[in-house]
Amino acid sequence: MLRFFLLLLTLTSLYSAQIEGFRWENGVTYSDFLEKNNLPRKYLLDELDVDDRRLVEEIKAGVNCNYLRDNDGSILQVLIPLNDELQIHIYKEENYYSFEAIPIESEVRIEALSLKVQTNPSVDIKRETGSINLVTIFSTAFGTSLDFTSLRKGDNLVMIYEQKYRLGKPFSMPTLLAAMIEVNKRPHYIYLNKDDRYYDEKGTQVESFLLARPVKNARISSRFTKRRFHPILKRWKAHLGMDYAARRGTPVVAAASGTVTYASRMGSYGNLIKIRHKDSYETRYAHLKSFRRGIKRGKRVSKGQTIGYVGTTGRSTGPHLHFELRKKGRAINPAKRVQLTTKKLNKKEKKAFDILTSGYNNKIEFLLKNETEFVKKRVEEKSCYFYNPKEESVRTDG
Asked: Which of 336, 360, 386 is the last residue of a domain?
């Protein structure tokens, strides 16, 4: 990233290079993009390894990208975000183009929304913010735990969330930190705890889609991250799953009921099983020593049923299960969906949780008391307001 900006500053000052922003169009593949911009497929696609080819498949429609062009219009560099941590960097050196994945430099802001329900939460959030992402995180967090048909006009809704900014513009899905919704004037709260799980005000976990742990009593040796320096390849790559270290031959179970769609060897995954579940979810189980007898494409499996055995096939440094969770093809963090424990918060955890929720409740109360002025200023100035708990104030970012 530093190389990009140093080169950018040098080129823009000496050679009048031009920076352009563009949005990745729906239905456009990485191959289409290279062809359209006369970029060499040989160096930027055909010669990529399996993992980098998998990366280019992660490009999402609508993401904001950037060109750096010379004054004759030729492309010098391209930045294509893959997620909120990693981006593709295409750059020209002399007469050759190169491909690499590099970290994204971003700013995290804590923002807030406070409104009175007029129609329903989804419609009102979209109307106030124009953001379908905020609608999504609100709906996903509360799931089916509340009956929104009992809402009344004038019920309060408050959201406190993190939003990442890249080059001054919001990008990626925001993370809901806390929310309150009144249902017929009765408040209901939800909080993101330090264990990355959502709980209500009583400390009861709130989840709409829970999975079983795929390897019982196994140690988590590597967690999901969109930015990791690979210990073998010595370069930046995403780790789009969770690794469970266990002895070779340890049983691996289906995390949820579904249908096997793949059970064979696949590149760096080694022996791989894919299972399709309801609501467009898919789980993947990689580096397996072998498959359980009868496990093949089209086989229906139940949650907790043994499907294979821990191994070290593919690109692996030792026996472990690489477990992935995907929705509509996109990798998501299994830690937020896997039921790692069925126990409730212990005494120490509950005490820390109570301190966390007390802080958020004070902030929610502050927003409710200042809602009239907040909404008035928002309409008049048409600014993006957000609430920073560290500053104990509402400020603008026009």
From this structure: 336
Neighbours of 397 (CB within 10 A): 11
Distance of CA 11 to the CA centre of its chain: 34
The amino acid that residue 72 corresponds to is D
Cα–Cα distance for residue pair 298/276, rounded to 1 Å: 10
Distances in Å between the alpha carbon of 292 and those of 32, 251, 273?
40, 9, 11
- Same domain flag for 92 and 140: no
Residues 6+ apart with CB under 8 A from 120: 148, 151
Q: For the whole model, what pTM was predicted?
A: 0.57
Number of structural domains in the chain: 3
Residues of the chain with pLDDT under 50: 1-15, 340-343, 372-398
What CATH number is associated with residue 252?
Answer: 2.70.70.10
Domain membership of residue 362 (yes or no) is: yes
* Cα atoms found within 13 Å of the Cα of residue 328, Cβ hemisphere only: 2
Residue that has been written with the tokens 């001054």 in this structure: 168
Strands 320-327 and 242-245: antiparallel
Domain that holds residue 15: 2-103
Contact (CB, 8 A) for 129 and 136: no
Give the CA distances from residue 224 to residues 241, 335, 371, in Å, rounded to whole numbers and listed in that order. Answer: 5, 8, 38
> Which domain-ending residue is among 80, 103, 126?
103
The 10s digit of each residue's pLDDT in 42-54 is: 989 998 887 788 7
Listing DSSP states for 156-209 in one string gives: EEEEEEEEEEETTEEEEEEEEEEEEEEETTEEEEEEE-TTS-EE-TTS-B--SS
User: Does 213 fall in a domain?
Assistant: no
